[in-house]
Amino acid sequence: MQHQIEQLLRQRYGKKSEKLDPAQMLLFTNDSEEVPLADLPVPPEAADSPATARSRGRKKLPADLPRIPKIYVLDEEARACPCCGKQRKEIGQETREQLDYKPASLHVVEHIRLKYACEDCQAHVATAPRLPEPIERGLPGTGLLAHVAVCKYVDHLPLYRQEGIFFREGVTLSRSTMCDWMASIAGLMEPIWKAMKARILLSDVIQTDDTPVSVQDLLLPGKNRTGRFWVYLGDRRNRFLVYDYSPNRGRDGPVDFLQDFRTGYLQSDAYSVYDAFHQRGLLEVACWAHARRKFYECRSTSPDYAHPALAWIGRLYDVEKAATAAIQKRLIDEKDLDDARRWAIEDEIRGQFRKEQSRPLMESFG
Questions:
Q1: Residue 116, beta-bridge partner list
Q2: Confidence band (pLDDT; 50, 70, 90) for 20?
Q3: Cβ atoms 264, 283 nearer than 8 A
Q4: Closest by Cα among 189, 164, 191, 159 to 177
Q5: By the number of CB atoms within 10 A of the CB, which of 116, 149, 188, 259 ranks highest?
Q6: Residues with Cβ within 8 Å of residue 174, at least 6 apart in sequence
Q7: Structure confidence at residue 22 (pLDDT)
């Protein structure tokens, strides 16, 4: 009951972060648990690498950004020397860069199609053809459609807020109209989505997870229900990220998406829906983030088990950070690498770190 109350209070009022003070994680370990961890080599800190070190001071602005010079000059009276009264001459300049922003602007594109006819017979009129449009004879151009989509799905700017932004620009665009635009875009993008899905299913390993999303219920106006977005990530040779929606958390969503994925590794949480895929031959790969969360949740009710486990998992994370830093340093030293060579370097270095450091950690945990 104490554990359940703590979880409810944390969900209602607590922070979402699962970070811990490293100095507190080994307070509840006994001598037998400390020995194998202390004997293992401590991986170098990733922060020591120049590739991951935090930069000090203000970063330089990109050189490709346009520069607009703003020159300040002294007036005639201020140029007079306070000693002799002569006019002082320019001897140099002091430059400081300031980043500014110019709001995006709307413009109207007039499509003018010239017509042609025979001068003698005054017939057989021909009109210059026009390029195809995303929405035939629709109001929005391709740039406006892309802008609304990016604002909504990347910047999480709802359509009703965009409606207000456009109104300040002097243009009235209702949210329902923009919603119809997004539906049209979805139809146009479906072939690309299918191509990305096909590439993901060619992967050796697929990562998947689901997240709840609030959806308006069409049968009950004014009411919302909970749907699910399933995310699928391919391996590095098929590095695509695809979302799939289902009205609930049932098995139909993953089954429909993964029905052609027959051999390989499936990394997911311990949700029972994935058991059917593992039974038919897909190799199960668990997630340390999900496993760590359970130890984190019981750190106060079962500290003797939770804190050593959190410390142990933290050591595994340190190995991965150190391996990533070593890979980045190696890639910086070896320039102009193709994908095959870069992947070979990643496999070599990460495999070495895991063999020499992660494997002893895994064997010591029990």
A1: 126
A2: low
A3: yes
A4: 159
A5: 149
A6: 163
A7: 57
Partners of residue 8 on adjacent β-strands: none
The bridge status of strand 283-285 relative to strand 126-127 is unpaired
Beta strands at 265-267 and 283-285: parallel, antiparallel or unpaired: parallel
Short-list 163, 162, 166, 142, CA closest to 154: 162
The answer, as to whether pTM is greater than 0.90, is no
Between CA 24 and CA 139 the distance in angstroms is 61
Q: How far apart are CA 130 and CA 143, in angstroms?
A: 17
Instruction: Locate 320 and state its tokens.
Output: 């991965």
By the 10 Å C-beta count (0-12 exposed, 13-18 middle, 19+ buried), 232 is classed as buried
Quote the tokens at residue 337.
Answer: 């690498």
Q: How far apart are CA 160 and CA 173, in angstroms?
A: 10
* Strands annotated E in 250-297: 265-267, 283-285
CB atoms within 10 A of CB 307: 20
Neighbours of 120 (CB within 10 A): 6
b/e map 134-169, b = 16+ CB within 10 Å: beeeeebbeebbeebbebbeeeeeebeebbeebeee
